[in-house]
Amino acid sequence: MLANIIKARKEAALSQKELASLVGLTQPDISKIERFERRLDVVEFIDMLTQISKRLNRDLSYIWQELYEHQCKQ
């Protein structure tokens, strides 16, 4: 699931620093989350998805659908 978020962040051309600023975290926080060194709580998860979907000009349901499909394949 996190791999999909990282992929979407990169597709949205958001740096870790930019995403961190948008969701009220630091760049090191985003880095640790992406390296599985820090847990991501539900609120942070939703904030990240919301900001990424805004940058991609896509409905949030698009990203949820991708995450759901990825989980179903496992």
From TrEMBL:
Q: Coiled-coil regions in this chain? A: none
Report the residue ranges that make up the HTH cro/C1-type domain in this protein.
5-63
Q: Which organism is it from?
A: Pseudoalteromonas xiamenensis
This chain belongs to which protein, by name? Helix-turn-helix transcriptional regulator
Do you know which SUPFAM superfamilies this protein is assigned to? lambda repressor-like DNA-binding domains (SSF47413)
Which molecular function terms from Gene Ontology are attached?
DNA binding
